[in-house]
Amino acid sequence: MIKLSPSVLAADFACLKDEIEKIGGADYVHIDVMDGHFVPNITFGPDIVKCIKKHTNLVLDVHLMIENPEKYVDVFLKSGADIITVHYECNMDFEYIKNAVKSAGKKLGISIKPKTDAEVLEKFLPDIDMALVMSVEPGFGGQKFMPESIDKIKKIRLMDKNIDIEVDGGIGEDNIKSVVDAGANVIVAGSSVFKADDVRKAVESLKKF
Ligand SMILES: O=C(CO)[C@@H](O)[C@H](O)COP(=O)(O)O
């Protein structure tokens, strides 16, 4: 069974509570935190995560696309993050982050950008719950899926049979099967959910894969 994690980056921020309610049939809420340094865009801070937490029982899947995530991991955990994912490519104190997330009883992920090899994850596998494969350059929603991500997912699945593998960027009805067949089990979908005419139906049909 896959877990569907709609990305609120594609939602209407002026009606976030209603948008979150519409994705009640999903499993996670994917929250892209961007700092304008690690990626060229700025999005949500911990206060918004706290507000989202008040309005949903879905798992909060917080993707930190920021430099030095050790400075912010505690505040995002306090705000209600259930999964914290940091980027392999950023400057970070991984030991600090690992201890903070584990002692809060939450899940830890590491993400790799499209140009980063899957092999870099190998040494982290014993310490993480999830590997996140970016299938677009991080920063903006609505980009085209990069098919080379499929091989990367397959490589990670060969390295670890049990780890959660999340894939993020350009996923919709036309390509979800290819990433699931490759071994991904957590699917991020932004535009294909929130820009659909019927958001509830879009969640329902992506969940069927
Ligand atoms: O992190 C990102 C983009 O940086 C993603 O989470 C996107 O928000 C996914 O959106 P779509 O590509 O599905 O529109």
From TrEMBL:
Query: Which co-factors does it depend on?
Result: Fe(2+); Co(2+); a divalent metal cation; Zn(2+)
Family, per entry: Belongs to the ribulose-phosphate 3-epimerase family.
What molecular functions are annotated in GO for this chain?
Answer: D-ribulose-phosphate 3-epimerase activity; metal ion binding
In UniProt terms, what function does this protein have?
Answer: Catalyzes the reversible epimerization of D-ribulose 5-phosphate to D-xylulose 5-phosphate.
Which organism encodes this protein? Answer: Qingrenia yutianensis
Catalytic reactions of this protein: D-ribulose 5-phosphate = D-xylulose 5-phosphate
Record's CDD domains?
RPE
Cellular component (GO) terms are:
cytoplasm
What protein is this chain from? Ribulose-phosphate 3-epimerase
Q: Which GO terms describe its biological process?
A: pentose catabolic process; pentose-phosphate shunt
Q: Which InterPro entries match?
A: Aldolase_TIM (IPR013785), Ribul_P_3_epim (IPR026019), Ribul_P_3_epim-like (IPR000056), RibuloseP-bd_barrel (IPR011060)
What general EC class does the enzyme of this chain belong to?
Answer: isomerase
Task: Tell me its EC number(s), please.
Answer: 5.1.3.1
Listed binding positions for substrate are: 7, 63, 139-142, 168-170, 190-191
Catalytic residues per the record? 32 (proton acceptor), 168 (proton donor)
Cofactor annotation comment = Binds 1 divalent metal cation per subunit.
Q: Which UniProt keywords apply?
A: Carbohydrate metabolism, Cobalt, Isomerase, Manganese, Metal-binding, Zinc
Kindly list the positions annotated as binding a divalent metal cation: 30, 32, 63, 168
